[in-house]
Amino acid sequence: MMTPEALLANWTEAWRALGIEAPDLALCAELQRRYCEPQRHYHTMQHLCECLAWFEREKALAERPGEVALALWFHDAIYDVHAHDNEARSADWARDAVCAAGASEEAAERIHSLVMATRHDAVPEGRDAELLIDIDLSILGAEPARFAEYERQVHAEYAFVPDEVRLPRRRAILQRFLDRDAIYATPRMHALLEARARTNLQQSISQAPRR
What we know:
2 domains, 211 residues, Hypothetical protein af1432, 0% strand, mainly alpha
C-alpha cells in the first residue's frame, strides 16, 4: 500500500499537470472513502495503490501523465456490483470534477475517455490509454500468491451470483484476455508481465470447477 503522503503527492502532481495548483483535498478523501466501501473486495484501496505504484514507475511513457493519474484515481470510483454502468458513472464524475476545478474541457473529455477504456471492451487506442489499461490489468501478471488473492477477491464481490452462472462467466472473461495477441501494449510491462499473466490465466481457467 502507498503511504498517505505518497497518495497525496500523486494527487497533487496530477492536478498541477492540468494547471490546478490547489487540488481539492476533500475530493481526494472522498475517493479514498469510496474505495473502502464494504461491498468491495478487489476494487479497493489495495487495487488503487497498486495501480498508482505502477503509474509512478511507468509515467515517463505517458503523453499527459496528469490525465492518466486522475483517470486511475477515478476509474473505479463508483462500484456497484449489481450495476452495469460503473465505468460510465465514474467517467462522468471525473469529467465533472475536472471541469469544476477549472481545467480545460479537452482535458476533462480525455480523462472521461480514459476511464471508459477500463471497460476493456475494445483494444485501447493511444499511448495514454495503452498505459492506463496495462496498469489496470497488471494484476493478471502478478506473482501467483497475489493473483490467487485477486481471484478470491473477485469471487467474493460476486458471491451473490449462483456458481453455475458466475464460474462460466468468469472463465469466459479470462479467456478473452488470453485470446488476445498481446495482453499488454507497452513494451516494458509486456516484457515484465505477459508470460506470467498467460500462465496465471491458463491455470485459473483450467482449475476452475465446472458446474
